[in-house]
Design brief:
Length: 255
């Protein structure tokens, strides 16, 4: 596991985009695991810039998103389908047939979750999985206490997670209580992991993730066991770390 601390959120986002872009350039038919939330938005903007100004080509790439709220239609402005199309997919040349986001409106959600796992395998597995981190240490919607070997499934959202996300809804009552999420085992199957964290609100979770014991009560700590994981934070998110970490990666291209 490599930890890289940048001074600003903008620098963090640029490095995240550079690492993703290198995978796309090296393997045009790559499979990308993508995340939602406020942290990756700046990274997506940089990828859009690279596509428009530098010709970064997503036409052969396949994408799988980590999660989606149960009960929100694709057109709902807080659904992750809507988020991804507004913040990335509409502005790059990805083939819509190659885009996968969990379907929170599926009639048979357990069957859908099995199908989603099958599609990841059929695509050849995820080459690079982008991750954010919750203030309680969750990755995707794998809340504290989640099985470290879990697969794609429905999870009940932690009240802290719902409170963190309430700012995107009109009231707490509108925040969904359930979500479909890739499991921790599914995430760990990816060939490479890239976790981005920004802001002082993530500092405690980052400290536990990087320097604490591996525990299901802080699901993100599992990335310590991944052979090719990179964590990129800004200075604010790294404020509680006790060890010294570099400001630049050992190598730009994740091997």
């Amino acid at each position: 596991m490599e930890v890289i601390i940048k001074e600003t959120p903008e620098q963090m986002a640029r490095l995240g985009a550079e690492l993703i872009a290198e995978v796309v350039r090296r393997k045009p038919k790559c499979v990308l695991g993508l995340a939602t939330g406020s942290t990756p938005v700046s990274t997506y903007r940089e990828l859009i810039r690279m596509h428009k100004n530098e010709g970064l080509d997503f036409s052969r790439a396949t994408t799988f998103n980590l999660d989606e709220y149960v009960g929100l239609a694709h057109e709902h402005d807080q659904s992750y389908h809507f988020f991804m199309w507004e913040n990335l997919f509409k502005q790059i040349n990805v083939n819509p047939k190659n885009v996968h986001v969990p379907d929170g409106m599926a009639k048979d959600i357990p069957a859908f979750c099995r199908w989603y796992e099958e599609q990841i395998v059929k695509a050849g597995g995820i080459d690079l999985q982008l991750l954010g981190i919750g203030s309680n240490g969750h990755i995707a919607f794998n809340e504290p206490g989640s099985s470290l070997g879990s697969r794609t499934r429905v999870k009940t959202l932690d009240e802290r997670t719902r409170a963190d996300n309430a700012r995107f809804f009109k009231s707490m009552n509108e925040v969904p209580k359930y979500a479909i999420t890739m499991g921790i085992g599914t995430i760990m199957d990816a060939r490479q992991l890239l976790l981005l964290a920004s802001g002082a609100g993530k500092a405690e979770a980052i400290q536990k993730t990087c320097e604490g014991p591996i525990t299901a009560m802080v699901p993100a700590t599992i990335v310590q066991l991944h052979p090719k994981a990179v964590i990129v934070t800004d200075k604010a998110a790294a404020v509680k770390l006790t060890r010294e970490y570099p400001a630049e990666p050992r190598v730009l291209v994740l091997q």
